[in-house]
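User: I'm new to structure prediction. If I give you an amino acid sequence, what do you actually give back? Let's try with this one:
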Amino acid sequence: MDGSSYYIPAVAMGVALSVKAPSLIRSWRDPLLRSVCALLTLVGLVFFFAAPPSIEEVNDVIGVTNVSAPLVYCLLSAFSSSCLVLVVNWRGGPPALTRRIKRRIIAGYTLVIATIAILFVLGDTPVERLVDFDTYYANTPYIRELIVLYLTGLTVAGGAMNFMCGRWALQVRGWLRAGLLIIVIGYLFNLAYLMTKFTAVIARWNGVNLDYLSSDAAPVLASIGVQISAVGFCLPLAGQRVGDSWNTWSTYRRLGPLWRELRPVSMHADRAVRISWWSPAELQVTQRESDIHDGMLNLYPYFDSAVRSGAYDAAVAAGSDPVQAQAEADAVMVTAAVRARAADPEGRVISSAEANAAPPSSTEGPRDLVRMSIALRQSSVVAAARGRAGTRSESDFHEQTR
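Assistant: Good question. You get back a string of structure tokens that encode the predicted 3D arrangement of the chain. For your 402 residues, that looks like this:
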């Protein structure tokens, strides 16, 4: 009984908790994050203190025979409470209702924990049992009730978890649905664990020895069930984080064509200090957007509303919807402006625009930078306009400076 089957999951939960700890420190007020960390902590503690070597050591240190039993049962009850609270936080809803439900759950399992402690004090367990406490004392007054109470508390929590998560899984999609279904699978193992425990205890009540169900089969089922459930709880959060990172990097990549188009005219194209490649994705996207806006700001005097209007009509004629056509028209206007700016190395158009102090109407309204960037790479209207943009821009430049 080296306890490795208990200590390995306990260490795994500890590692998961250490990964979550920095986020918890930064966002302590986040109830969902607090619930996840509480769950991981309780799972680790249950496995650690349920290991036979830990049971023996705790009994010796405290000096009370079998005191580890109510300790583990109290931790299991707290774990059940934390699972229910996490699902309530996870699902959300009106804050007042959510708080009321959580208070009831916590109050109910606090009462269970207090009753377990009282029943243990009232009972008599003189013989130390490391792995078969439930069946050995199944007929002992007060301890019998203690065992039934903690198993009933776990059963109620397991049934509620399967009901809530199973019904919720039918209403959602993606990572959340996957996580909920995994939790349901994990709790099916937990319910199997409880059934073996109840079967062994009831068999003892009837004079039949099925202790192996409680001592050998139940711990394996519990270990599998808790670890599967922990994966289910963590998966949606991890999946959302991966998805957010993927979307951010995807945005960064899709902005590439527009960023490269404007890079020659960006006011900070040659900046000496740039963020490192290992900087957070959000910061990388922010800098790329900033570079794009800098480049467009430098191009404003060269934007030609006639070029944009013609490109918009061509895009609509080619079958683009209005939003896409607007992005293609903006991309064509930017391409033409870049050529016009290159044909005006002395910046006489910029000087003229500053003197007139009247921004062109084509600069009004927001632009979808990602759509514009994609249009630069994929739009046939932009490809057709590229060959004409340079000639048209040079002609416009000569008209303006004649």
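You can read the tokens as a compact description of the fold. Here is one thing that stands out. The CA atoms of residues 190 and 225 lie 5 Å apart.
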